[in-house]
Specification:
The complex is a heterodimer. Chain A is an all-alpha fold. In chain A, α1 packs antiparallel against α2 and α1 runs antiparallel to α3. The longest helix of chain A is centred in the first third of the chain and has 27 residues. Chain A is globular, with a radius of gyration of 15 Å. Chain A starts with a helix and ends in a 13-residue tail after the last helix. By secondary structure, chain B is mostly helical. Chain B has seven helices and four strands; from the N terminus they run βββαβαααααα. Chain B has a two-stranded antiparallel sheet with strand order 1-2. Chain B has a two-stranded antiparallel sheet with strand order 3-4. Chain B is elongated, with a radius of gyration of 35 Å. Classes of the chains: A mainly alpha, B mainly alpha. At the A-B interface, α3 and α4 of A face α5, α6 and α7 of B.
Chain lengths: 143, 324
């Protein structure tokens, strides 16, 4: 059950890592630092998901050579960052709902709760930088 | 032993002569309680009825014997009946359904013996003389009644028999009490609680507590009110989603304070700090505690609720960005 969810999540993390690489270049120093931190975090999750899939006997899909991301301006870059975080959050929440409290799922669910929370906090930070109001959403990961 | 005109309806008794003395007193007031009659009967009053053919067990109502001369000795002797509770008036009455069967004593004509142990139990420890052919039969006394019977009376000995309403019981007062608490329809056992509902209720309480806190802080910190409004709105939304669409108006407490959360504040409701920074810090702490509880609950809940609780945990964590 968890393999398709993990695979979908890995796909989203691949795209997010790529997207941060693109959008970080459009931001000022502070924004770039923030983008770099986020990128590191998503890379770590990506590698973790890759490992989890291999542990389950699945062959993880590699990243696509390129993704259709468009961030010509800082504003577009910030909006893209928010969109990327929101998109990954949906997959993390799907993983929470798609797992059970019992082992071996329990560890995955714990990971998913943490992943969802990280995405929600980062999305709020990007909205704050972008001057969006409100900077939070009531139900992160609900699409 | 009394001989009356209704003696034909009385059943003869076989049994060894009782030895010893029965000390049980009998109530003197005749009364009826839910079909069970107890108390001393007046002569000639029909207190029980026999029915069926000659093959039927001969049953007599065994009454604690007060005088040596009253003991049943031979077939044909009639024991003075009295007390007996749970005697059928109508043979076509169905015995009440139910699990619990109490036991009573019955004198039968076929003379089958119980083991002496059972007799000893049946007679309350053997201090009373008991006819050898006394048998224990089940009578329809509900388990609820049985539990109300005094423990340690050795005469309630299960015999593995079905319900026999033609049975008699020994011990008038005891059985009257039992009969009075007979309940023909036990309440069905409550369904097992849904663990997710407990998790959901706890989350509801947490959100209500946070809402109450935001309301209190907004009132005393007008400078922060605008900042707190959006966060408060999201907690109201959390509450709405947790309660589901059925809850209607109570789930939408966005106008005014939330409706009476009695257990909202687990600790003493702390007055909001005067300093805005301290107030914000306290709210950040409350969000963190609530979010951690949501996250912990998300690890225990079923899929759908777990997803929601995880989302709530993520939301509370993101509020730190607003408040920080």
């Amino acid at each position: 059950v968890s393999v398709p969810l993990l695979a979908t999540l890995l796909e989203a993390e691949h795209a997010t890592v790529y997207g941060y690489g693109v959008l970080g270049a459009r931001l000022d120093d502070a924004g770039r630092d923030r983008a770099r931190t986020a990128l590191d975090s998503h890379r770590a999750r990506r590698d973790q998901l890759d490992r989890l899939l291999r542990e389950r006997g699945a062959e993880p899909e590699p990243s696509e050579p390129a993704y259709d991301v468009d961030a010509p301006t800082p504003e577009a870059a910030l909006a893209l960052a928010v969109r990327l975080e929101e998109g990954v959050a949906v997959r993390w929440r799907d993983l929470v709902a798609g797992t059970t409290p019992e082992p071996p799922d329990a560890a995955l669910r714990s990971l998913a709760v943490a992943g969802l929370t990280e995405c929600a906090v980062r999305a709020a930070q990007w909205r704050q930088v972008a001057g969006t109001d409100p900077i939070t959403v009531a139900l992160p990961g609900s699409g | 032993v009394t001989a009356t005109s209704s003696a034909a309806a009385r059943r003869p008794v076989t049994g060894e002569p009782s030895r010893g003395t029965a000390l049980t007193s009998r109530p003197t007031l005749r009364r009826q309680c839910r079909g069970s009659v107890s108390g001393r009967s007046t002569p000639g009053e029909e207190t029980s009825r026999t029915y069926g053919g000659a093959e039927q067990r001969r049953v007599v109502l065994v009454d604690p014997v007060q005088h040596v001369a009253d003991r049943p000795r031979d077939v044909g002797d009639v024991v003075e009946r009295d007390p007996a509770v749970l005697v059928d008036d109508d043979p076509h009455d169905a015995a009440p359904a139910g699990r619990g069967d109490g036991q009573g004593l019955e004198v039968v004509a076929d003379g089958r013996d119980l083991g002496s142990d059972q007799l000893a139990q049946a007679s309350g420890g053997g201090s009373h003389g008991v006819p050898a052919s006394l048998q224990l039969w089940s009578v329809p006394v509900r388990a609820a009644c049985r539990s109300s019977l005094p423990a340690g009376r050795g005469w309630l000995v299960p015999m593995g028999r079905g319900v026999d309403r033609r049975s008699v019981l020994l011990g008038t007062a005891l059985l009257t009490a039992a009969a009075c608490s007979v309940d023909p329809s036990p309440p069905p056992p409550p369904p097992p609680p849904d663990p997710d509902e407990a998790l959901r209720s706890a989350a509801v309480e947490r959100e209500r507590a946070l809402l109450a806190r935001y309301d209190a802080f907004s009132a005393t910190q007008p400078a922060l009110a605008a900042r707190l409004t959006s966060v408060r709105e999201e907690h109201a939304e959390h509450l709405r989603v947790l309660l589901g669409p059925d809850e209607g108006p109570t789930a939408a407490p966005s106008d005014g304070p939330p409706s009476a959360p009695p257990t909202a504040e687990p600790a003493d409701p702390v007055a909001p700090p005067a300093e805005p920074a301290a107030a914000l810090a306290e709210l950040v702490g409350a969000e963190a505690v609530t979010g951690a509880a949501h996250a912990a609950a998300a690890l225990q809940a079923g899929g759908e609720l777990a997803g929601l609780l995880a989302s709530l945990a993520a939301s509370e964590a993101s509020h730190r960005v607003v408040l920080g």
